[in-house]
Every structure is written in structure tokens, then in C-alpha cells.
Amino acid sequence: MGDSDGxxxxxxxxxxxxxDDYLSVWKSYGAYGILGAVIISILIPILLSxxxxxxxxxxxxxxxxxxxxEAGYAVRxxxxxxLVEVPWQGATTMAxxxxxxxxxxxxxxxLGTRKLxxxxxxxxxxGRKFEKVHLGxxxxxxYGDVFGRVCNFASGLVRLGHNLDSRAAIxxxxxxxxxxxxxxxxxxxxxxxxxxxxxGEDALIHSLNEAQVSTLICDSKQLKKLDAISPSLxxxxxxxxxxxxxTENDTVSGSTxxxxxxxxxxxxxxxxxSPVPPSFPSKxxxxxxxxxxxxxxxxxxxxxxxxxxxxxxxxxxKIIPDLSSNDxxxxxxxxxxxxxxxxxxxxxxIGCRLGYGSALTLTDNGSKIxxxxxxxxxxxxxxxxxxxxAILDRIRDGVLKEVEKHGGLVKQLFDIAYKRRxxxxxxxxxxxxxxxxxxxxxxxxxxxxxxxxxxIRFVLCGGAPLSADSQRFINVCMxxxxxxxxxxxxxxxxxxxxxxxxxxxxxxxxxLPCCYIKLVSWEEGGYRTTDKPMPRGEIVVGGFSVTAxxxxxxxxxxESYKVDDRGMRWFYTGDIGQFHPDGCLEIIDRKKxxxxxxxxxxxxxxxxxxxLAASSYxxxxxxxxxxxxxxxxxxxxxxxxxxxxxxxxxGISYKDFSELCDKVEAxxxxxxSLTKVGKAAKLDKFEIPAKIRLLPEPWTPxxxxxxxxxxxxxxxxxxxxxxxxxxxxx
Length: 730
Prior knowledge:
This protein is an alpha/beta fold. The chain crosses the membrane at residues 29-52.
């Protein structure tokens, strides 16, 4: 991946997660460490067994509720009787929330950015050049500082000539100015169109033209891309660019001379010299048209109101305990994704610090970090982070592979520590004792936690289902609970959210306090609300977080959104879920992923892919099922490291990785692994791919084969690898 990656973490960074530095300390404990570990693990259970007998009564987290609309099984959060709509009285819009929070916390540090000290380019053995940067400490702006800059930018937009009846777009990677530009637009009731920095030219042109954007706010490095497509952009009048350290900004040719072009700081100065009174929006006003990098076709714009945003913020504030202005949040995911925008809006409401980083500079061993200097996590020492499951899966795999590589005492110590702490997390009384926990933290897990700064106490995870193994790994090794979130752009990330004290796996918690979740029977797929032992059906979200619909697409809006007889708005997600007795939701399938095979069997592609991902050989996988056959096939992007290690041990010779992927022996080895994990996951025979194709190139957001949340784009993959799929069925 290049430096302009707009996805949510990437393979160059993840390859560096399993490095020697955080494991070296374990070696020093040697046999004494093992002896101490054995004593701890044997004696403490015996000494404390009488103290921790009995089971804790299961907590009721969600309760059934009567609602309007289509018949189904509906649940609300047990903490509320009525849905919450605002985080506090008067915060009915994001503009109001921003102003009130900034004034309340005016002297507190808010947005932090690292200063670029130096950068250099190094050449790898294969001739490729890589940029390495040395970044300084975080430099902070207070809430009061940021509020002043936002007011100036809002005024500057008007003075620059932005038509207040038109939309502005932000096309940039995540940074402090992104969020300030957003709030500046909100202050003048300007709707913001958000676009992924990794979006291709066709999708970018489509988004800007469809939304009739008149002012485009972007990174300075995006100016060349805009220059190239300028003849296709119909409505752009103004371009505002963010200045970058060491970046030349004079890169726009005469073909864009029809545009007014100014830097972010120039717009601020314009507004400072000539202030304009604010024009506050209403709660039903459209705050954001968020273009998704969806899994099919051109991106769709989702119309998100101010009321949707503050409702989700209010819901999350209700269920995450003990957060305050003392907390620190590390922002590195794309703000054009609903998950990150919701998280940063939540941080604003809490009044804590927010430090910006990037995927390539996140850790000390990040692929863009100069050797010997600090990554973002080490410099910031965050207490809060967000992540998507694919990232946590790879963090777990990276650490475990490194442990396996060292073997010996290191592996023995890690295995003992992991089992003991896992027992504690899963509720076994003997592992919960404070002294033993501290022992393992010092002996083993302290260095693992140092990867992410050493102070993480809560991880917010969303975007896709999280595997049980990865959830437990974070619980144990990072010592932090994971709040699993279920939501969509269409519900402004508001849906379900697991409680901090819920240590079960495979579930996404009860509904957020701002919405209801209802299951509606899907007869064709065999999912019914009358199913035993748990009701099952399509997940439908209703409440204050449900958005206004799709921009300029009433037909699609009418398909997916319904308003019931009580005036409540519902969104039909297409996901299939089931409710556990305590009111927690589990995602079990997706309607679009279900294919009926030749002999009448139904196969859930997403379920099979999730199971196959457990193979150490799998970097990414797409399962394909032809309805005219009685078996499925799969495209697999294998892990370079794992497959090459196997080839070396098996004595397989090859010129490059592409040739290795074509080797019959390699295909057979990976297929055997898939069969093994498939059987372990209790897949039926027809669900385990009968044939596979190994693909050497990774699937990235830039290639258009996965979304920014790293979910596969099934239709694009089917189109690109049409010939390979046909050969698998030949």
C-alpha cells in the first residue's frame, strides 16, 4: 500500500506488529520465570478455592418491548424506559454540542498533532522507495483554541463565496483540520459530503456531481487528482486545501483556473478579519451526506441528520462508564467512515483529548516510522482506541507468530500466562485475584501492551463480526474490555453495543439506548421469530439514530426505510440476527450472502468465509457458489509469511510468490487447512470449498476489492476474477 491509503490499517503496519523488542524482556526471566509461573498457577487455586464459589446471576441487558410497524420481536436497552435523544439538554445538533462542549472545556487540551521533524526515502533491495518520517511530540490545541479557529473558518467560507444553499465536500485523510472544517460547515448550516481519500476517480466524480458540491475541502496532495478530473466536475466553484509540512502546494494547472483556490489558513484569516454571525441548523437538518465505499456498484450517499449524530452520541455515553476529560483517544481511522466520525463526535461530548495519527505511523515499528523513533501510540499513550475486526485479527496473529518463532521458555511462559489470564477473563475465580493478575502483567503482557502505548483501557470495535479468539486476545494481552458495536452508515453507527462488563464472545450486545432493534421473520431463509431456543430474523433498527435515506435515490430509500403508524422510522439492514435470553444480539447471517445450491441446500457465504478465516494461511477469502452446482469454491489471498515458511520447510522451490501460489502442492496444503478449520467450525460438506484458487496480490481499498472497513466487495471480486471462478467450475 502507498502512503495515501484511506483504509483502516494496512498490511505494512501489521507485518511489523510481531517484532523482537516487546518479547526480549521475557527471555530474561528464564527458568526462574517458568518456576514462578508454575507455583502461581498451582498454589493460588488451592489457597483461594473456598473464597470464590458460586455463580453470578446473569444480568438482563435488553428487554422485550411493544413497538409499531411490521410484526416481529423487538428489544430495548434495559437501562432506559424511553429512548434517549440528546446527550444533554440543549445539545440537539452537532453545532450546539460543539459550542457547548468547547465552552465547558475551554482550557482543556483537545486536538493534538505531531510535528514533522524530518523525512527521508530509503530504497529496498527490490528497488522500491519508502518514505520514513521522524515525528515529534504531540502539539495541542485547547477546546477554546479549536472553537475560535472553527468560528473563523465558518466565517471565511462565507466570505470566500460559498453559496449557503449548496453543499461542501471533504476529501482528505483523517486530521485535525478535517474535523474543524466539518464543524465550521455545521456552524453555517452547510451540509457536508464526506468522501474516502482512497476513492477512485469514477466514484469521486460521481459523488461530487451527484451531490452538486460547490466547495471542495481536501489534502494538498489531492490537488493533482482534481486537476486531472476537473473537466468532469460540473459544480465545483471553490477548493480549499490543507497545508502539509514539506509539501508543495503550487500543483494546480490552468485547467482549474475557474475555481477559487485557497489554503485552510487563508480561509481562517479571511473569517477572522470579517466575522459572520452563525446560522445554526435544526435537528432534522441534513448534517452529512456520507458516501459509502459499499460492496456493490457506485457509492451511495446516506443523508445523516444532526439529530441522528447526537442521538448515537447520547446512546454511547449512556453505556460506557467512567470516561472523563482525563481520557485520551487515538484517531487514525478514516473520518469519512461512519465509525470514526461517530467516535470523534463521542470524544467531543466527553471533553477528553484526541490525538491524530495514521495507519503507517501507529506503532514504533510502523512502516513509515524512522527506526529508533516513536510511533503515534507510544507518543500519545492513549486510553481509548477504535479498531475493526480485521485489524485485531492480524494483531493477534502477529504476536502469536512471533511467540511461536521464539519458542522455548518464551513460548512456555506466554502459554501459561495466557491460559491463567484467560481463565480470569472467562470468570474462573482463581485467575481474578489481583496479585496473580499483576504478576502476569509484569512478567508477560506489559510489553505486548506497550505496542499500543501501554495505557489502553477500552477498545471500541465495529465494522464486522469479531472472532472469539481475537476478542479474548485483546481482553487478555491488552487487559482491556472490548465494546463491540453493530451499526451501519444508515443508522449513524447506532444499533447495538456490548456493555463493558459483558465478557461473552460472539455477540454485539443489547440495543443502544437511542434505538430499538426488531427481528422480522424471513421465511425464505428459514429464520423466524418463533424459532427456539432464540428468536431469529432480519435485523430492523428503529429510533433516533435511523437516517433520512439515500441522497437522490427515493426508490432505494423506499425499499430499505419504513415509517410505522407511530411515526417511528425503521431501517431494514439485510443482516440476520438472534436475541439471547439476556437481550443481547448476535449476528448470524446476511440475506444477500445466501445462495441456494443445485440440490436445494442453502449456503451462507459470509458464515463460511468467517469460518475459513481461522486458517493461518488465509489473509483474505471470498467464497463463491454457483446455483447450478452442488458445491462451492473460493478465492484465497494467502499469508506471504505463513505460506513461504511452509514452502521452505517442505522444500518447495519457486521464483516469486506468484509462482508459489500456482504450485499444486501449495494449493493442496491451503485447501487441507481450509477443510480442517471448516470441519472444526461444523460446516457441512457442501459448505467447505471443493476447489480453491490462490491469488498473490492483496485486496486493498485502493484496488477497489475491499471497503475502507476491509470488508470484501463481492460483486467487484466476482467481476475481476470471473475467469478464475469459471475455471474452478470447469
